[in-house]
């Protein structure tokens, strides 16, 4: 029998998630963090991360109750220090030319990647509470490593690819290309010839790698939701792999369109200024300036790619957010629905990027708040049987903050 | 039953960590040894029950703003669950009454004067650190760096340059030998009081190359490279070998002060400190400040090498005037053909960089002529 009268259906209540933080307030949190980080030569970083997480959690209300971030500072600092020392050791090894040590570090990092991800998720969920109930991430290490198969598949693809390319490469003709000054082979002319078949093979490798990346994202996201829990309830996951592939395909489409637009716009600009002509006529007499010019052009291309890919990245983020928050839930008790508008999110991201650039980064906290608010406010939680019914037990506290520090380095943001 | 003197009762819900069902409680704050303690009175039991949490048993929530609090404030009691307080203002007032002293971070967060005060102190501290602290630390670390590391670095760098744009010198063997002889004579005058690192014994050698403009640069470990163009410029301006030897004295200064090694350390501190701190603001800002501070260090090095050159030339009883004329000559030649101005210099301690790092070449040339350089430690 259902005694809940708040909703007409089968006793289902709808709770809109709400973010009550304010940009300027968070700006002050952020500017204090920046200042103290500078003063302490970076040692304040874990405290800064904790304050940031707390600000967002404190102001995120789920069914009337805020989230709590309960990570202990001592553990976060310890994790940060361990990570900083590891990183320093790696930097010293690679800067002083100890290639063996450096490659051992890189190899270890690759093998450890699933472990890093797993501990980061464990840390993140294990230190989140809602109504006093602790979230858990209960995947075993075996499950984490099994879900990581695309990483190893991708490595295998590229190892095979190297061998196949060698086999396909045409025999280099014995007469060497004309030597450069002072008997050195001219690098521009000694590039190996690449045949059409080799290009096709490289293309295949890229496609396979992208599919692996998508699979990895799918595996990790589904494992995260399925092994997440609060109280005695476990996560529910509906999306399938092809859903992810579709989002990625659409993203690539958006990227190509924006790239075309950017290139077209730049070309138009150059034509209008007549700059191309003036530059070309000058190139000959420039000597050393040419190197600078090329370096600048390279920088412009990198920045251009970042800018041109921004809409695509925002698009992917929005679509992925919708896909996930429309298709996950908590066993039979709760469902999430998401009303995020892709267009608005992409436009917001572009506006934020522009303002961040114009203010030399001072706009960053405002950007963060506005994007987080748009995401959180778009989600509605539907609960069957009331939010009072969850029972569970306090699990053992997370042992260390190392996972968090490693996750930080791996680019997994605590917020978002 | 005892009650506190002014019983500020705050309504809250207590979640015990086992269930998402909250129980109504009343909170009171009591003075404790390390700070306010928290007493939780459970209301829904037949007999009144309460539990006291000491200051360290409570995760005190931060205050984000003086004028506004989140709609609901949560207080974590570690293993005893969490409290949700619906009237944050009453909570904050009670805290202040109970003698809670906000941390510095808290005050910086909620009071602008506190923030600006720390900002001022920090600005002074940071400037002092990068102005005095880092160079001092760099000198201490440089002391520990073995000569063999510098030599292997130089070997690699020179090999790379030779594969790149440097070409063998076209100077006659006699001319090279003559300059080398003067270089060695100059080194013979290098007394212990000119050495910054008493136990540092670099292997000095003079190398000639062509393929770039009028220039000379020092590589760590003692190799000094001079270009044909520099020798030609001196000849064109009708200057004696004193000009070239003065430039070499400047480069020897870079070697003796181990400027390349110092810069590696200084740049490392910059990248770590500024990169980590400003990376969150923007990589552009972080890169810019790192670049500018790095440039300041380089200018400092140039001044040191300058002072060293004057001192060494005086010991060798050679004039520094011709060197100044050479400097002006190169500057004039560059003014004449602006287009050929090399905008990028990869090498440490290059002589032409000395020109570009000091805006007023003329003034410095005059000081060199007078046998003194500004900013020298005496």
Blueprint (SSEs and pairs):
The complex is a heterodimer of chains A (416) and B (378).
Chain A: E1 12-16, E2 18-19, H1 23-39, H2 45-58, E3 60-62, E4 65-69, H3 73-95, H4 99-126, E5 128-130, E6 133-137, H5 141-147, H6 149-168, H7 196-226, E7 228-230, E8 233-237, H8 241-273, H9 275-283, H10 288-325, E9 328-330, E10 334-338, H11 342-358, H12 364-377, E11 379-384, H13 402-409
Antiparallel strand pairs in A: 1-11, 2-3, 3-4, 4-5, 5-6, 6-7, 7-8, 8-9, 9-10, 10-11
Chain B: E1 10-15, E2 23-30, E3 37-42, E4 49-53, E5 73-76, E6 82-85, H1 88-97, H2 104-110, H3 112-144, H4 147-163, E7 167-168, H5 173-188, E8 205-210, E9 216-218, E10 223-227, H6 228-236, H7 241-256, H8 259-278, H9 283-315, H10 321-336, H11 351-357, H12 361-369
Parallel strand pairs in B: 8-10
Antiparallel strand pairs in B: 1-2, 1-6, 2-3, 3-4, 5-6, 7-8, 9-10
Helix pairs in contact in B: 2-3, 3-8, 5-7, 7-9, 7-10, 8-9, 10-12
Keywords:
heterodimer, A: 416 residues, alpha+beta, 13 helices, 62% helix, globular, disordered N terminus, B: 378 residues, 2 domains, six-stranded antiparallel sheet, four-stranded mixed sheet, 12 helices, 51% helix, 13% strand, rod-shaped
Can you put this structure into words, describing what you see?
The complex is a heterodimer of chains A (416) and B (378). With 416 residues, chain A is an alpha+beta fold. Chain A has helices at 23-39, 45-58, 73-95, 99-126, 141-147, 149-168, 196-226, 241-273, 275-283, 288-325, 342-358, 364-377, 402-409; strands at residues 12-16, 18-19, 60-62, 65-69, 128-130, 133-137, 228-230, 233-237, 328-330, 334-338, 379-384. An eleven-stranded antiparallel beta sheet of chain A has the order 1-11-10-9-8-7-6-5-4-3-2. In chain A, strand 5 and strand 6 (133-137) form a beta hairpin. Mean pLDDT of chain A is 80; it is low at 1-9, 174-190, 394-401 and 408-416. Helices cover 51% and strands 13% of the residues of chain B. Chain B has twelve helices and ten strands. Chain B has helices at residues 88-97, 104-110, 112-144, 147-163, 173-188, 228-236, 241-256, 259-278, 283-315, 321-336, 351-357, 361-369; strands spanning 10-15, 23-30, 37-42, 49-53, 73-76, 82-85, 167-168, 205-210, 216-218, 223-227. At the A-B interface, helix 1, helix 2, strand 4 and helix 10 of A face strand 5, helix 2, helix 3 and helix 8 of B.
């Amino acid at each position: 029998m259902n005694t809940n009268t708040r909703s007409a259906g089968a006793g289902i209540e709808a709770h809109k998630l709400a973010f009550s933080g304010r940009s300027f307030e968070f700006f002050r949190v952020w500017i204090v963090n920046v200042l103290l980080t500078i003063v302490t030569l970076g040692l304040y970083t874990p405290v800064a991360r904790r304050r940031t997480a707390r600000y967002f959690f404190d102001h995120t209300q789920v069914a009337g109750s805020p989230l709590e971030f309960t990570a202990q500072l001592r553990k976060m600092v310890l994790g940060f220090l361990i990570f900083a020392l590891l990183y320093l050791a790696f930097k010293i090894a690679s800067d002083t030319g100890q290639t063996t040590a450096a490659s051992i570090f890189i190899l270890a990092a690759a093998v450890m990647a699933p472990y890093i991800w797993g501990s980061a998720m464990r840390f993140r969920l294990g230190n989140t509470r809602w109504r006093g109930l602790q979230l858990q991430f209960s995947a075993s290490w075996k499950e984490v490593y099994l879900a990581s198969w695309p990483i190893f598949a991708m490595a295998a693809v590229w190892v095979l690819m190297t061998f196949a390319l060698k086999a396909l490469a045409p025999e280099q003709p014995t007469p060497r290309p004309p030597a450069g000054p002072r008997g050195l082979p001219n690098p521009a002319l000694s590039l190996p010839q690449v045949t059409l078949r080799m290009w096709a093979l490289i293309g295949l490798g890229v496609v396979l790698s992208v599919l692996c990346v998508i699979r990895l994202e799918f595996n990790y996201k589904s494992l995260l939701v399925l092994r997440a829990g609060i109280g005695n309830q476990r996560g529910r996951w509906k999306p399938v792999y092809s859903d992810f592939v579709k989002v990625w395909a659409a993203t690539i489409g958006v990227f190509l369109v924006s790239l075309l637009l950017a290139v077209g716009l730049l070309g138009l600009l150059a034509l209008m200024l007549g700059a191309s002509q003036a530059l070309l006529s000058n190139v000959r007499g420039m000597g050393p300036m040419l190197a600078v010019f090329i370096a600048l052009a390279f920088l412009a291309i990198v920045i251009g790619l970042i800018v041109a890919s921004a809409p695509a990245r925002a698009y992917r983020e929005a679509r992925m957010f919708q896909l996930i928050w429309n298709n996950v839930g908590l066993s039979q008790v709760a469902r999430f629905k998401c009303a995020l508008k892709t267009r608005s999110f992409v436009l917001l991201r572009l506006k934020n990027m522009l303002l961040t650039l114009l203010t030399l980064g001072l706009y960053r906290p405002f950007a963060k708040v506005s994007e987080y608010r748009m995401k959180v406010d778009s989600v509605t939680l539907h609960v069957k049987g009331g939010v009072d019914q969850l029972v569970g037990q306090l699990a053992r506290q997370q042992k260390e903050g190392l996972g968090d520090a490693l996750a930080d380095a791996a680019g997994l943001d605590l917020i978002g | 039953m005892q009650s506190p003197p002014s019983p500020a009762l705050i309504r809250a819900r207590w979640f015990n960590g086992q269930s998402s069902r909250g129980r109504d409680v009343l909170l009171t704050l009591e003075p404790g040894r390390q700070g306010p303690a928290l007493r939780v009175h459970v209301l829904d039991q037949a007999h009144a029950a309460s539990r006291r949490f000491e200051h360290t048993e409570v995760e005190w929530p931060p205050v984000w703003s003086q004028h506004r609090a989140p709609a609901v404030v949560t207080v974590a009691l570690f293993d005893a669950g969490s409290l949700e307080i619906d009237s944050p203002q009453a909570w904050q007032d009670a805290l202040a009454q109970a003698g809670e002293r906000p941390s510095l971070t808290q005050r910086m967060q909620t009071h602008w004067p506190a923030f600006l005060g720390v900002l001022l102190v920090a600005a002074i501290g940071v400037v002092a650190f990068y102005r005095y602290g880092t160079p001092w630390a760099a000198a201490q670390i440089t002391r520990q760096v073995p000569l063999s590391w510098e030599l292997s670095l130089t070997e690699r760098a020179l090999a790379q340059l030779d594969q790149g744009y440097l070409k063998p010198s076209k100077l006659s063997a006699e001319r090279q030998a003559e300059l080398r002889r003067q270089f060695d004579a100059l080194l013979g005058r290098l007394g212990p009081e000119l050495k910054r690192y008493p136990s540092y014994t670099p292997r000095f050698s003079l190398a000639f190359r062509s393929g770039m403009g009028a220039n000379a640069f020092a590589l760590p470990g003692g190799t000094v490279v001079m270009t044909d163009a520099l020798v030609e410029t001196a000849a064109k301006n009708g200057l004696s070998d004193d000009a070239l030897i003065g430039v070499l004295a400047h480069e020897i200064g870079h070697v003796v002060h181990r400027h390349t090694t110092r810069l590696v350390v200084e740049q490392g501190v910059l990248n770590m400190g500024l990169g980590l701190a400003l990376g969150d603001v923007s990589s552009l800002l972080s890169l810019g400040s790192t670049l500018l501070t790095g440039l300041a260090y380089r200018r400092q090095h140039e001044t040191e090498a300058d002072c060293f050159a004057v001192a060494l030339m005086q010991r060798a009883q050679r004039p520094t005037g011709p060197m100044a004329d050479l400097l002006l000559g190169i500057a004039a030649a560059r003014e004449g053909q602006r287009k050929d101005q090399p905008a990028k210099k990869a090498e440490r301690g290059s002589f032409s960089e000395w020109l570009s790092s000091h805006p007023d070449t003329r003034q410095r040339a005059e000081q060199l002529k007078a046998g003194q350089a500004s900013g020298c430690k005496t």
